[in-house]
Design a protein that fits this description.
With 491 residues, the protein is of the alpha/beta class. 34% of the residues lie in helices and 13% in strands.
Length: 491
């Protein structure tokens, strides 16, 4: 175990990011080159190895956090990596992209200084790759069964790796020209450089997973035929149907869904084009939506050279302390500053976010392009407009980051596999991830859960793989960390 008094003589000290102005000059990760192992070891030593580690309950993967903290504190990075990978296929993804509800559930969070679990996780994962501790793990035998995985985001990749290691022949079908789903084209490189994705894909190929990019299942590739060719199908297509803003002026030029914009920026990073099809360069940008996707748009717009960036959040500004209805260890809605917000503050001198505002309409110019948003303050409880509070914000590019409402509509996948939607717009399934009314078809990740965190996607991919393995051979030794109907801890 770690030093039981470590938290008393060592203060919480997160790994510092690169200076904001420095990172705004490139697309490298915020923490590129910043993680120092001695600092991480000292922080891991603050873990108390609690009798009841609430950090476990806050993480759907069931990560063995006190165990790998103890190994990291002693500098046994190989053992730390083994414990980390025991529950998580891709810890370098989660260490970068997860908002770390485990830290808010840490017992030390009661005093406001939890263990820097996210930093420790990333450091272990990265050091494991650098030291050659992470290798391919091909199966010792093959089952003679084949599985199609449709979608190559974190849920699809996790399911594919687990099923390949269980001995099944797995083929991953991806509509885009490259493997990775949102990890490839939705997540900006300053949050996770694509090299981390590439080496996992290379590992999976070495283990035997087959990848087919440019395959639009439900379109050019008939999903029903795919089901006949394979013994089972895992649908992990994500929840890419962006929510709309049905107000006047929506059809004006310069108003785009956030994912359209982020994909364009990521394609430039992949070398597909010298310039993005949608750019913020020299423009006044307004991002509508206060979540992580909106923050990603803010960081991207700043790097493209936007003249100004404003982010509109319909929710009231949260407080700095937990509300009474969100007690520890629940992940609270508190005032948080993302790295993109920090960058905007440094560039513009103020937080780019405006809270408790809703869009009434868009105003256009003579060319049919957006020139301004008309906003109103809203009541916190029901979001109804407050009379007499209308204001105007100038804009030359508007990005809608309002969340997602389930898998994309209009393709043939749903009809050809016989999938049905539930009341939330996601694909209906039972608690064991089996699609309702479609034998041998399983649904994993955001396609069934709805928009969620990367840790939930990986947990669902692992659990769905266990369900598929059981369906194919009658039993399974694969881990199943969650059920399809599990939800995050709430009060």
């Amino acid at each position: 175990m770690t030093d039981p008094f470590g938290f008393l003589h060592t203060a919480r000290s997160p790994v510092p990011p690169r200076p904001a102005e420095e990172r705004l000059g490139d697309w490298r990760e915020v923490y590129a080159g910043q993680v120092l192992l001695p600092l991480v070891s000292a922080q891991a030593n603050r873990c108390m190895d609690c009798g009841v580690p609430f950090c476990h309950g806050a993480c759907p993967l069931g990560n063995l956090i006190p165990e790998w903290n103890a190994y990291a504190a002693r500098g046994d990075w190989r053992a730390a990596s083994e414990r980390l990978h025991a529950t998580n296929n891709f810890p370098e993804f989660t260490g970068r992209l997860c908002p770390a509800p485990c830290e808010d559930a840490c017992v030390l969070a009661l005093e406001g200084a939890p263990v820097t679990i996210k930093n420790v996780e990333q450091a272990i994962a990265d050091h494991a790759w650098d030291s050659g501790y992470v290798g391919a793990a091909p199966p010792g035998r093959h089952s003679g069964r084949s599985v199609a995985v449709v979608g190559s985001g974190p849920a699809g990749l996790a399911a594919a790796q687990q099923l390949t290691r269980a001995g099944h022949t797995v083929v991953v079908y991806e509509r885009d020209d490259r493997i990775g789903g949102l990890l490839r084209y939705g997540i900006p490189a300053f949050k996770m450089e694509k090299s981390h994705l590439e080496r996992r894909i290379a590992q999976m190929r070495e283990e035997g997973t087959v990848f087919r990019a440019g395959c639009d299942v439900g379109g050019a590739v008939d999903a029903a035929e795919l089901r006949r060719r394979h013994d089972a199908v895992v649908v992990a297509v994500g929840a890419g149907q962006g929510r709309e803003l049905d107000v006047g002026g929506r059809a004006l030029g310069g108003v785009h869904q956030a994912m359209e914009y982020l994909v364009c920026a990521n394609r430039v990073g992949e070398g597909d084009a010298p310039e993005p099809g949608i750019t913020a360069e020299g423009r006044r940008v307004v991002v509508v939506g206060g979540g992580d996707t909106g923050s990603d748009c803010v960081g991207t717009a700043l790097r493209q050279g936007a003249s100004s960036v404003v982010q509109i959040d319909i929710n009231p500004e949260p407080g700095s302390e937990r509300a009474g209805h969100e007690p520890w260890p629940v992940y609270p809605k508190v005032y948080r500053i993302s790295h993109a917000h920090e960058e905007a503050r440094g560039r513009q001198g103020a937080d780019p976010r405006l809270f408790a505002l809703a869009t009434l309409r868009f105003e256009g110019d003579a060319r049919g392009r957006v020139r301004a948003l008309h906003l109103t303050r809203v009541e916190p409880r029901d979001r109804s407009p407050v009379p007499g509070t209308e204001q105007v914000v100038e804009a030359e590019l508007v990005l809608l980051a309002l969340g997602f409402s389930g898998p994309e509509r209009g393709g043939g996948l749903e009809r050809q596999l016989g999938l049905v939607r539930d009341g939330r717009g996601t694909f209906a399934r039972d608690a064991a991830f089996a699609a309702l009314g479609a034998d041998g078809v399983f649904v994993a990740g955001d396609a069934g859960r709805g928009q969620s965190l990367v840790v939930w996607a990986i947990a669902e991919g692992r659990a769905a793989a266990a369900a598929v393995d059981r369906y194919l051979v009658g039993r399974t030794e694969l881990a199943a960390p969650v059920r399809a109907d599990d939800r995050p801890l709430t009060a």
